[in-house]
Design a protein that fits this description.
Blueprint: E1 4-8, E2 16-22, E3 25-31, H1 34-37, H2 40-58, H3 63-75, H4 82-107, H5 110-122, H6 129-142, H7 155-168, H8 173-181, H9 191-208, H10 217-227, H11 231-239, H12 268-287, H13 298-303
Parallel strand pairs: 1-3
Antiparallel strand pairs: 2-3
Helix pairs in contact: 2-4, 2-5, 3-4, 4-7, 5-6, 5-7, 6-7, 7-8, 10-12
Length: 310
Amino acid sequence: MLPVTLYQAQNSLMPNAALYFISGEGHVVFSGPVLSLLTPEELKSVIGHELAHYHLWQWEQGELHIVDQLVQAVANDPRASSSHAEIARRFQLYTEIFADRGSLCVTGDVNPGVAGLVKLVTRLAQVSAPGYLKQAEEIFAKDAVATEGVSHPEAFNRARSAAMWSAKGDDATPQIASMIEGVVTFEGLDLIDQARLVKSTRWLLEQFLQPKWFQTPAVLGHVVKIQHLPCENAQKTFFGSERLGSARIGSEQFGDLPGVGVKNWSSPEINLVLFLWFLFVVFCFAVCPECSGDERSESQRSSGQTAKFV
């Protein structure tokens, strides 16, 4: 059994509760008039929320707590990119969603958790949880809303997420994810989104680069930049050990081509721009070969002869 110690902070008037994680001990600190503002069931839900944080941090022998510390440290580093900040943000947001489920498991009823949450945010003495959930549903009925929170989703987002999980269980996960992550944009990609995009990009490249006539040095040079691989390795990745006809793609072949070198192309943002440009070129070449200057005959295309683009 976990020993839990409750504290009352003296330096804040805002109602709040926070867990201070120490392995083997539970320390929950109340700020402001939490004890007088909440009903017993609401207070139970708040403590359940905080102890769910403890449960998460000691889970898997503390590995998730280590992950939390790592992603936050990386995101706060001056050298971090937007993707590092975004994955740290999402980790915090989903941590709160997890803790809200811990609150629900303790009370067995979504209403005390919602009422306690709203009271802590607004300092209202009386809150109708069903009424608040109805208002939250009206917000989402008008438009697809995603949280703008940095460490905590908005109260209406958390309340609706808890209610959906209470009613549907894990079947609500896709909807809750859309409420947290929203529509994926290039600017909002985190590290996991980038990995998914890389996988999709490589699959598309494999499909587009199957025709022999399209495997020119210029095209393959841009593939190399997107792949993050040395030229010869990129060739083997896409096409095994087969040589690409007369198209040699050693890095020395691209000295006179502007912007085709493989150095300094590790930025995910640059790769996204290259990917969009590459898709445009693929569309032009594949759909309208004559527009791209490919004047080979049909027999040349069938035989896989490589064209020289001027």
